């Protein structure tokens, strides 16, 4: 028991070592933007919500580059960046689920449940990260599939929030720019598929770390 507690304490100490960096501050700002994005969009301030999503996505693209260029890569940064991604996806998925359920289109109402897949996946990954830390193992860093899935999710959300039928910021005022429901559904399905490919790509490394940690504690 003492060994496990010591391992957890050491892991947390290493994670927060050298955490006061610009990239980590950017990740914290991204996390703080999450409720702002959700509330603005759900309350109908769609343009401001789109702007906040753009800022969040832009900061996600630059924080890693800043960390590498100025040698500010940290263990906390490797944790905060994917957490910010997951919480942003989680919030947007909830808001879009509610918006689709409120839509007049029966097809959109029926399709709303697909957004629950994003929510379920991110809950599992967040809980998994907590378990890894509790076991004295650092969460698995984002891989190429994870980065691609996040990029595609942001892109799809911007298209839906901008041009989606009934809920789009642009299509509300300019109906001629509304994308067909079928296209919107296909884009969301692509994002879901990539999200779960990314999820399964994390598992081998996560199980490997847990197995190695288990051997060390024996």
If you had to describe this structure to a student in words, what would you say it looks like?
The structure is a single chain. This protein is mainly α and 218 residues long. The chain has eight helices and no strands. It has helices at residues 2-16, 22-42, 46-69, 75-102, 106-111, 115-134, 144-163, 181-216. Helix 2 packs antiparallel against helix 3, helix 6 (115-134) runs parallel beside helix 8 (181-216) and helix 7 (144-163) runs antiparallel to helix 8 (181-216). The chain is globular and about 60 Å long. Mean pLDDT is 80; it is low at 1-6.
Short description:
The chain is mainly α and 218 residues long. The protein contains 8 helices and no strands. It has helices spanning 2-16, 22-42, 46-69, 75-102, 106-111, 115-134, 144-163, 181-216.
Query: Which structural category fits the helices and strands?
Result: mainly alpha
**CATH class label:** Mainly Alpha
Reported for the largest beta sheet, the result is: none
Number of distinct beta strands: 0
Give, in order, the helices and strands.
HHHHHHHH
Strand content: under 5%
The CATH topology, please? Answer: Four Helix Bundle (Hemerythrin (Met), subunit A)
The count of helical stretches stands at 8
Stretches where pLDDT falls below 50 for ≥5 residues? 1-6
Terminal residue distance: 11 Å
Output mean pLDDT: 80
The CATH homology group name: CDP-alcohol phosphotransferase transmembrane (TM) domain
Integer tally of domains: 1
Anisotropy-based shape:
globular
Architecture, according to CATH? Up-down Bundle
Our Rg estimate from Cα atoms comes to: 19 Å
